[in-house]
Amino acid sequence: MLWEKTQEVLKDTLSGSVYQLWIEPLRCLEVRDDSIYLLSPDRYFSAYVAQKFLSIIEATVKEAGSVQRRVVICEDERVHTPKPVMQPKGQLRLPTVPENNSSVRALHPRYTFDQYMVGDCNILAESACKAISADDDSYGPCIYINSETGLGKSHLTHAIAHKVFAESPMTRLHYVTAQQFAAEMVRNIQSKTMDTFKQKYHDHCDMLLVEDIHSLTGKKKTQEELNEVLDSLIKSGKRVVLTANQAPRELVGIDSEFRSRMSSGLVTMIKAPDINTRLRIVERKAGTHQLGLAEEGVNYLAQHIRGDIRQVESAIVAIRAKSRLMGGHVDMDMIREAVTSVVGVGQQLTIQMISDLIAKQFKVSVDDMKSRSRKRQLTFPRQVAMYLCRKYTDDSLAEIGRAFNRDHSTVMHSIKKVTNLSVRDTSVAAQMELLTGKVKSL
Questions:
Q1: Which is the CATH superfamily of the domain at 103-269?
Q2: Angle at 56 between CA 50 and CA 57, to 5 degrees
Q3: Residue 308: strand, helix, or coil
Q4: In this structure, what is the dihedral angle of CA atoms 359, 360, 365, 369, given to the nearest 10 degrees?
Q5: What whole-number distance in Å separates Cα of residue 109 and Cα of residue 93?
Q6: Are 266 and 141 in contact (CB under 8 A)?
Q7: What is the residue extent of each domain of the chain?
Q8: In the prediction, which pLDDT does 109 show?
C-alpha cells in the first residue's frame, strides 16, 4: 500500500522520536489519482505536520508511488471534497462578535488532561487548570504554576489550550512564552504599532497563557507591559495562567508590583512525583509507545529516573528502538543501559539499590526484609536498610515505609534504633561505617 511504503521510507529518513510523535499517528483514509488523504488526531497536530513535514511527506509519496500526489491532512474520516472544510464544534459566532484572533504555540497532541498523570505532587495544579479551562472561577481568574524542568508545567498549559479550543473554539486565547511576548513587544515598538499590540492583549484576549516568566529577569520594560496586561485582564474577569521555574517570591530581578500581580491568584507548585506516581508514569509511557515491560523493568525505571518526566520517555524510546533490533526482546541489561544513557552513571541512590546491597551483605533476600517476620536476623538488616535509605535518598519516610511494607512510624523507630546502637556499640558502629562506604560506592 502506498502509505505503508511511504512510512517505511520516512522511518529511515527521520529520527525515531520524530517519526513516532508526528508520522506514526497519521492514518491513510483514501488514495486518489491526484491526492492522498491522511487522518490526524486533531487540527493542531495537522497544522504542525503541514508546517514541518508536508514537503518531505509529499516527496516520499512520489518516490513510493511514482506519481506526484497532493497530501491532504484532515481530522474528519468523511472525505467528501478535495479540500476538507473544518466545521467549528460547539460555539457559533454571532454577527456582533469579533472573529477569533487566537495566537497559539504548536500544541503537542498528547499533552491533554486525559494523558496527565495525577498524584499528590500535582493534584492541586491539575485541578486548578481543569477548572480555569472550563471557565470555573473556583481557584480565581489567575493561576501561577512553578516547578523544576520536566515535571509537567507545559503539559498542563497545552492541556488547557486543547480543552478550550475543543469546547469553546471562539475563545480568544493567546498562548506564548515570556520570551515571545517580549520579542513581539519589541517588534511593535520598532514599527510604532504598540496600539495594535495593546489592543490584542487588553481588548481582544479572553485567556492568556504565558510560560517561563523567569526569563523576564531584569527586563523592566517587558515586566511593566505584561503587568499592565495582567491588571487589565484580571480586572475584566478574563483568565490568566503563568508558569515559571520558581515561586514569585523567589524570582530575582522582578519588579515588586509585577511580583505582587502574579501572586494575586492561586500560586501552586508541582513537586517531583513520588514512587507510586513514577510507576504509573512509566507504565503509561510504555503503553503509549507499545513497549511491553515486566514489573522488574518498570520498577527499575521508576526508581532510577526520579525527576524530569521527559527522561522517562527518552529512556523508553531508547529501549523500544533497541528492542526492535533484538526482535522485540527486552531485558534488564537493555533497560540499565538506557537509564545510564539518560541519567548518567552517577545516578541517584534508590531504595532498591540500597535494599539489594543490604540483603547481599546480610545474606538475606529483599523479600524477606519486606516480610512481616520479626526474627532478629531479618529485623536488624531491615532497620539498617531503612536508616541508610533515609540518609542517602530523597524519599520520604512514607515512601521508605511503603517499600518495606511498613508505615512511616516504623521507619522513624528504625532510624532511632540504628542511631542509638551505633553510639553505644562499637561493633555496630564499625558495621555501619563499612556499609556506608559500600553505599557511597554504588
A1: P-loop containing nucleotide triphosphate hydrolases (3.40.50.300)
A2: 70
A3: coil
A4: -10
A5: 26
A6: no
A7: 2-74, 103-269, 275-343, 351-440
A8: 85
Residues 6 or more apart whose CB falls under 8 angstroms from that of 303 comprise 275, 278, 350, 351, 352, 353
Residues 6+ apart with CB under 8 A from 143: 125, 128, 129, 132, 240, 241, 242, 265, 266, 268
Q: How far is CA 203 from the centre of its chain?
A: 32
Q: Which helix (H) or strand (E) holds 239?
A: strand 239-244
pLDDT at 105: 60
Q: Tell me what the pLDDT averaged over the chain comes to.
A: 85
**Of the options 3.40.640.10, 3.30.300.180, 3.40.50.300, 3.90.550.10, the CATH number for the domain spanning 2-74:** 3.30.300.180
Which pLDDT score is estimated for 198?
A: 93
β-pair type (35-39, 27-31): antiparallel
Report the SS3 class of residue 28.
strand
Query: CA 125, 128, 132, 135: dihedral to nearest 10 degrees?
Result: 160
- Whole-structure pTM over 0.85, yes or no? no
Those residues of the chain that have pLDDT short of 70 are 44, 76-105, 344-348, 441-442
- Name the grid cell of 118: 495525577
**Cα separations in angstroms, 436 against 154, 196, 331, 352, 432:** 40, 65, 30, 16, 6
Name the residue type at position 255: D
Give first-to-last CA distance, the chain, whole Å: 52
CATH architecture of 351-440: Orthogonal Bundle (1.10)
Q: What's the grid cell of residue 428?
A: 555496630
User: Residues 267-296: pLDDT tens digits?
Assistant: 999 988 887 888 889 998 888 888 888 888
Residue 403, CA distances (Å) to 167, 304, 367, 386 in order? 42, 14, 10, 9
Question: Could you read off the pLDDT of 73-119 as tens digits, one per residue?
Answer: 887 655 444 444 333 444 444 444 445 556 666 788 889 999 898 88
User: Per CATH, which fold does 275-343 belong to?
Assistant: Helicase, Ruva Protein; domain 3 (1.10.8)
